[in-house]
Amino acid sequence: MLELDRVGVTLRGRRILDGVSLTVAAGEVVALVGPNGSGKTTTLRCCYRQVPVDGGKIMIDGRELRTLSRRRLSQLLTASVQEPESLPGMTVRESVTAGRVPRLRLHQVLTAVDQRRVAECLTTVGLADLAERDLSRLSGGERQRVSIARALASDPRVLLLDEPTNHLDLRYQLTVLELCRELARSQGLAILMTVHDLQQAANYADRVVIIDDGRVIAEGAAGEALRPEVLDQVFGVRGRLDRGAGGSYRLELDGLAPARP
Ligand SMILES: Nc1ncnc2c1ncn2[C@@H]1O[C@H](COP(=O)(O)OP(=O)(O)OP(=O)(O)O)[C@@H](O)[C@H]1O
C-alpha cells in the first residue's frame, strides 16, 4: 500500500535521508523507531510531499506519489500532526469535519453520512462529549486525539502518525495503539507511525523499521530487529527485549552503553 524505495532527501545542503526503503501493507501497522534527529518525521513528511525527495520513489496504492493529484493524495493518505490547524473559535467537531473535506465533491455540503462518520470518529477517540468545545480550550492529549479523529474522517487507505502517544496519559496511549491495530485489521488501513517507546512499538506494531542517521539499520519483527547490538549501536543503551509468558514484550534496560571513541 505504501512503499518507499531508496528515498533520499537533502535539506539545506545536508543529507537527511539516504536510501530509505520500507513498505507498509494494507492491514499492517509499522513502527518507525530511531534516535532524535534520525529522520523519522522527515520520512513521514516525504510521503505527503512536505519535503522534496531527490532520489528513489514513493508508491501509494500502486501509483507513484509524484503523479497523484493533491485531491487523490488526500483521499488515499492522511497524516495526524500534533497541532491540527485551527481557526479562532473552532470547535472539536468542526476541526474533525474539516478532515472529511477530501471525501466531498466541489461545493458539496455535508450529507448525513458525512456527519455520521464525523460523529463515529469522535466516539472512536473518546471525544464525543467534547464535540462542541472550543479547540483552544483542550489539553495537549485531547488535541492529539482530535488530530487522530480528523485524520480518520477522510477514510484514508494509509495513515501516518507522528508520535501518536505524545501528550497522552497511559490509558489513552494504549487506547490509541489498540485503536491503530484494530483499524488496520478491520479496515485494512496501512499505518506507519513514529514511536519513541520501543516496548510499545514491539507490542503494537506488526514490524519495526529502525532508522539511524537517515538510513534503515534493521527491520522486521520486533524480537529480531531490536537486538541488544542494535539497542547499543543505535540507541546507545544496554538492554534487551524479553518476551513474557503472556507473549508481550518487555524492554529490560541495564543503563547507558559505554561511550564509543
Ligand atoms: N527543514 C529542515 N531544514 C534542515 N534540516 C532539517 C529540516 N527539518 C529537519 N531537519 C534535520 O533533519 C534531521 C532529521 O529530522 P527529523 O525531524 O526527521 O528527525 P526525527 O527522527 O523525527 O527526530 P525526533 O525523534 O527528535 O522527532 C535532523 O537533524 C533535523 O535537524
UniProtKB/TrEMBL annotation:
PANTHER family associated with the record? ABC TRANSPORTER ATP-BINDING PROTEIN (PTHR42794:SF2), HEMIN IMPORT ATP-BINDING PROTEIN HMUV (PTHR42794)
Q: Which InterPro entries match?
A: AAA+_ATPase, ABC_transporter-like_ATP-bd, ABC_transporter-like_CS, P-loop_NTPase
- The organism named in the record is Microlunatus parietis
> One Pfam family for this entry, by name?
ABC_tran
Fetch the CDD domains from UniProt.
Answer: ABC_Iron-Siderophores_B12_Hemin (cd03214)
Record lineage: Bacteria, Bacillati, Actinomycetota, Actinomycetes, Propionibacteriales
What protein name applies here? Iron complex transport system ATP-binding protein
Question: What SMART domains does the annotation carry?
Answer: AAA
Q: Which GO terms describe its molecular function?
A: ATP binding; ATP hydrolysis activity
Report the residue ranges that make up the ABC transporter domain in this protein. 2-238
Which controlled-vocabulary keywords does the entry list?
ATP-binding, Nucleotide-binding, Transport
